[in-house]
Amino acid sequence: MQNTSGLYPRLIGYRKETSSYLKLCTAFDLVARDFYSAPVESFQWNIANEHEINWNVDKKTVGWCFQKNRLVRSEGTFDVKRKRWRKKTKSLAADSLSECSFVLNKSGEKVIGLTLALSTTENGNVLRRERTVNLRSGVMYEICG
User: Fold this and answer.
1) Looking at the domain assignment, is residue 20 inside a domain?
2) Under a CB-based contact definition with an 8 Å cutoff, are residues 54 and 40 in contact?
3) Which of 44, 45, 110, 122 could form a disulfide with 20 if both were Cys (CB 3.0 to 4.6 A apart)?
4) 82: phi then psi, degrees, rounded to nearest 5
């Protein structure tokens, strides 16, 4: 008879890691979906730093922020002069993240891409996903990393 007592805990661990990895993939896809409609002109970007980005599209502002190990999407009205939201709707895209960083890629005054890195730790293993979404002539394409 074969000893399978260690198999069940390992299966539980694999399930948790797979779930965490899918959470990272989903979060990235949500950010990428919003970035497809982002403007090319730098002046339409209100905030662009390592943990927060937001930009104007049509008559609203779309933003993403990493705080307290959560990735949050905001949409609403942003006061550019005061650098704060006047009115917004927030949605949780991912939690239990250990890292999230945004890097805008520019060419002169044009935004040509965004690199997003997300990571989480599950069972002592660091799961990391990084992807760059580039903008070329108004058409988006992705480079998986």
Assistant:
1) yes
2) no
3) 122
4) -90, -5
- Domain count across the chain: 1
Domain span holding position 32? 7-144
pLDDT tens per residue across span 44-64:
999 889 999 999 988 899 999
Cα separation, 96 vs 76, in Å, equals: 25
Sheet with 125-136, strands from edge to edge, namely 99-107, 110-122, 125-136, 139-144
In a domain, 1, yes or no: no
Query: Would you state the structure tokens that stand for residue 21, as one six-digit string?
Result: 């990895």
Where do runs of H (alpha helix) occur along the chain?
A: 7-35
N-to-C CA span, the chain? 45
Amino acid residing at 131 = R
Residues 6+ apart with CB under 8 A from 35: 114, 133, 140
Instruction: Let me know if residue 121 belongs to a domain.
Output: yes
Q: What is the pLDDT of residues 3-43, one digit of tens each?
A: 555 655 655 666 677 888 888 888 988 988 888 778 888 89
Residue 2 in domain: no
